[in-house]
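Supplementary notes for students who missed Thursday's class. We covered one full example, reproduced here. Read the sequence, then the structure, then the short commentary at the end.
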Amino acid sequence: MPLISLKTSVEIPENKREALLSELSKIVAESTGKPEQYVMAIIETADFMMGGHPSMAAFADVRGIGGINRETNAKISEKLCALLESRLSISPQRVYINFTDIPASNWGCNGSTFG
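Structure (token representation):
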């Protein structure tokens, strides 16, 4: 159920993309307490203008049914920013993260919804 969608200006080589997807998935699973088998992780490359400067940046959209709260969001923010800085050299100051708690009836999978 949890989803992390990452858009970044950094071109990620194919041989490093799967490892980064795995790390994103683990961060969300561990932070939300949800089984990793239900986590979806997405990476997309995009052009960014932030603070009037077109340089390296990232935007993450984190969604889930429950488990999205102040404590969880702080954990994800800390771990995600550290990951992006170490793996992609993106400064935490150039990372925005959006957190959305979705009602179970508004999340579908396998021909149905979760609520």
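Commentary. The radius of gyration is 14 Å. The first strand starts at residue 3 and ends at 8. If anything here is unclear, bring it to office hours.
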